[in-house]
Design goal:
five-stranded parallel sheet, two-stranded antiparallel ribbon
Length: 115
Amino acid sequence: MTTSEIDRASEPFGIDPAACEAGVPLLDVRRAATYATASSRIGGAHWRDPAAVATWAGELTPGAPVVVYCVHGHEVSRSVALQLRAAGIEARFLRGGIEAWQAAGLPLEGMPRVA
């Protein structure tokens, strides 16, 4: 799919930062290199490699909601959301990504330390 096709297909599944419900799992799907150099993430989010969706999608509960985010809320999170939806997961992408979350004044946490 092209970027514009992904945008059109995924748009109904976007969610604004302020509309995220407490208790809905958040998955950080920033590319590995971006995640490795990031200084913060959305609190409680778990990183999943967007290049390996087929590998970890089966760990999620079919029919259960999940919100995925990347940096800007463009092709990475939109593509992951569509792939998860195809696997039966009620995935949504965060419009504007982590940047919109931060701009809305919502809390971030520091990155977990690797032992």
